[in-house]
Design goal:
There is one protein chain. Helices cover 76% and strands 0% of the residues. With 59 residues, the chain is mainly α. The protein has a domain of 29 residues. The longest helix is centred in the middle third of the chain and has 45 residues. Keywords: Membrane, Transmembrane, Transmembrane helix. This is DUF2207 domain-containing protein.
């Protein structure tokens, strides 16, 4: 029973370590892509185009 608990704790610990490394590595990419997407939406909203096909909500 003790080995089963130690095994579960070890598996959870390894899974959290891998997940933390993935989040730490991918977070800058997520931030950069969110900024670029926000700038794109801002450009589309500010541009003076009167076309009906250029609605921001129709991405």
């Amino acid at each position: 029973m003790l080995w089963k608990i130690i095994g579960i704790v070890a598996v959870v610990w390894i899974a959290l370590a891998i997940l933390g490394a993935l989040i730490k590595g991918l977070f800058p990419i997520l931030v950069i892509s969110a900024i670029v997407f926000g700038l794109y939406l801002l450009y589309k909203a500010v541009s003076g185009s009167n076309d009906n096909n250029n609605h921001v909500s129709k991405l």
